[in-house]
Amino acid sequence: QLQLVESGGGSVQPGGSLGVSCTVSGFRSKSFVIAWFRQAPGKEREGVSCIWHSGGSTIYADSVKGRFAISRDNAKNTAYLQMNSLKPEDTAVYYCAVTYRIMIPQSECTIDSNFDFWGQGTQVTVSS
Prior knowledge:
Blueprint: E1 3-8, E2 10-12, E3 18-25, E4 33-39, E5 46-51, E6 58-60, E7 68-73, E8 78-83, E9 92-99, E10 117-118, E11 122-126
Parallel strand pairs: 2-11
Antiparallel strand pairs: 1-3, 3-8, 4-5, 4-9, 5-6, 7-8, 9-10, 9-11
């Protein structure tokens, strides 16, 4: 069974940077899409960014474009989300998710129902 374990996150002041990582194990194929989602208290889960198995295709939500960077190291079975210029509205629990459906349209990779496997989440808090 595929498992995802997130690490990183924490607390930072506005304008600061944080990174989160997601290590994948138990996969049957290395061809999968990894996405990051986040959920703030009282809000719906939001797709943040996606990266395809080759690392060549990435997608970002408008709210994080230019500030966040997604990457993956297939040798380490790990994906990363580097978050810069953080704002208080970035405060949320961040989840990584995986789907084997690599043919999903890029426009749909931030839809949570397209993902089958989820990590436990890691808290990111941006506050002065």
